[in-house]
Amino acid sequence: MSGPRYEPPTAPSARRAIYFDGSGLYFSETLLAAIAREFAELSVFCTRDSDYRHHPEIQLVLVAPDRMTEFGTVVTELMSVIPSARLVFCYEHEDQARAMFAEHRTRIVEQDISLMPTNVRLDTWMSYIRLFLQGQTLIATSLIGAVEDCGRATRSRSSSPALQKLTAREAEILALAAQGEQNKLIASQLKISEHTVKLHMHRVIRKLGVRNRTEAAHFLMRSAS
After folding, report:
1. Which of 26, 76, 210, 224 might form a disulfide with 215, Cβ 3.0–4.6 angstroms?
2. Pick from 139, 213, 127: which is nearest to 176 by CA?
3. What CA–CA distance (Å, rounded) separates 88 from 132?
4. How far apart are CA 5 and CA 200, in angstroms?
């Protein structure tokens, strides 16, 4: 039994849209069909269907991994035409994404660009897209390589009023979390219980006014830039 068939829009639509920038090598018809069915209120189309310049209502753009080497050009081109769209660069290999983040960190942080792994389950794809449509940003903490900058930002806590609200222990835990350390490892390193780490992280999230651990790390990156 075949899966759902992807039917690209026959003409530009006034509805909000999700645009997949890249080849079918990364964005298959099966994937696009599933996303179109899950987000039926939106138009879903890709490079092979239509020029994005004809769709002014694009809300979200997902860029294929093979365009990561053109990061600067792609961002400039897309933002000049659809400046209000959220950009997501998809990646297959974490090393590749980490290198791109290190090279373009300031622009990624300032323009709220997300980095998303493609080798995830379909339900995770849906969760990520829902998160992006809600205006959230995703950057895995394991991609954050600027450990010294993050640690310095939390130790000084002088660049942001919100960071100044953190206690020394909360700042320490945030810096470790931003380096990609999991709660169990943080607890072991600081010689405290994992439950205590969770409590501190909960307070960090509340004080920074963010929604989750990833957003807390993203907040720290902004302050460290």
Report:
1. 210
2. 213
3. 8
4. 47
Residues 32 and 111 in one domain: yes
Structural contact between residues 204 and 170, judged by C-beta atoms closer than 8 angstroms: yes
**Which residues span the domain enclosing 169?**
147-224
**Cα–Cα distance for residue pair 24/48, rounded to 1 Å:** 8
Identify whether residues 48 and 118 lie together within a single domain: yes
- 92/54 Cα distance (integer angstroms): 29
Amino acid at 133: L
Task: State the Cα–Cα distance between residues 101 and 107, nearest whole angstrom.
Answer: 9
Average pLDDT, the chain: 81
Say which residue, 62 or 167, is predicted with more confidence.
Answer: 62
Q: Which long-range contacts (CB under 8 A, 24 or more apart) does 208-216 make?
A: 208/162, 208/163, 209/162, 211/136, 213/141, 213/177, 214/137, 214/138, 214/139, 214/140, 214/141, 215/136, 215/137, 216/174, 216/177, 216/178
Q: pTM for this structure?
A: 0.63
Q: Tens of pLDDT along 25-56?
A: 788 888 999 999 999 999 898 876 666 776 76
Q: Is 80 helix (H, G, I), strand (E, B) or coil?
A: helix
Of 112, 139, 166, the one marking the end of a domain is 139
